[in-house]
Amino acid sequence: MLKCYSKKLIIAGCDEAGRGCIAGPVVAASVILPNDFNCNLINDSKLLSEKKRNNAYDIIMNKSLSYAIGIVDEKKIDKINILNASILAMHKAISKLEITPELLLIDGNQFKKYNSIQHKCIVKGDKKFISIAAASIIAKVYRDKLMQKLHNKIDDYKWNNNKGYPTKFHRKMIEKLGPSIYHRKSFQLTKKIDK
User: Fold this and answer.
1) pTM above 0.70?
2) Displacement of CA 125 from its chain's centroid (Å)
3) Three-state DSSP class for residue 40
């Protein structure tokens, strides 16, 4: 069972999904849970099966005090790099919360201050604190749905399976067909071949 960071403050957990992908947007979520929130299902989204993640997603959507999504597309990622895009996506999510948090818990080790709200970066925070884990689930499920929609538009790269991550098949199709409009052109899209 993951713990609550503090029961005295209004805390928003923040995390992103899709940072390691070579196609599609980076999606961040920010989630404020009630202090007495309790759910054994909530964990780092990467440790949950798709079914459990979807169940947890529904619980968080229903029980959270506020949640919001921030999206930065592949064109912007190429312009400002993935770290800045991830932080921008978190800022976008935080700006849409209906309640102003007193503390932001950020998964990872880098963040840029958002307005005057205090923040704390926590490496592997999605395995330690429930609000960050909840944000990781919201971001991951939301992004997976987006990648399914992109797959419905262009099905050559099988984004319904790989979600834009650089699988062997995904890279092979880029070599064969070239990149699509949804690929991150600043990323290493195909395997480097040593000369």
Assistant:
1) yes
2) 13
3) coil
CA distance 87 to 110: 8
Label residues 86-96 b or e (16+ Cβ within 10 Å = b): bbbbbbbbbee
Those residues whose C-beta lies under 8 Å from the C-beta of residue 132, and which sit 6 or more positions away, are 13, 14, 15, 105, 106, 107, 122, 125, 126
What is the pLDDT at residue 192?
Answer: 63
CA distance 165 to 187: 12
Question: What's the fold here for domain 11-177?
Answer: Nucleotidyltransferase; domain 5 (3.30.420)
Q: Taking each helix axis from N to C terminus, what angle separates 50-63 and 130-153, rounded to the nearest 10 degrees?
A: 120
Read off the pLDDT of residues 107-128 as tens digits, 9 standing for 90 and up: 999 999 999 999 999 999 999 9
- What is the spatial distance between Cα 165 and Cα 169, in angstroms, rounded to a whole number? 10
What are 27's strand-pairing partners?
A: 17, 71
> Is-contact 76 85, C-beta < 8 A?
yes
- 96-110: per-residue pLDDT in tens? 999 999 999 999 999
Percent of the chain with pLDDT over 90: 87
Task: Name the strand (E) or helix (H) holding 51.
Answer: helix 50-63
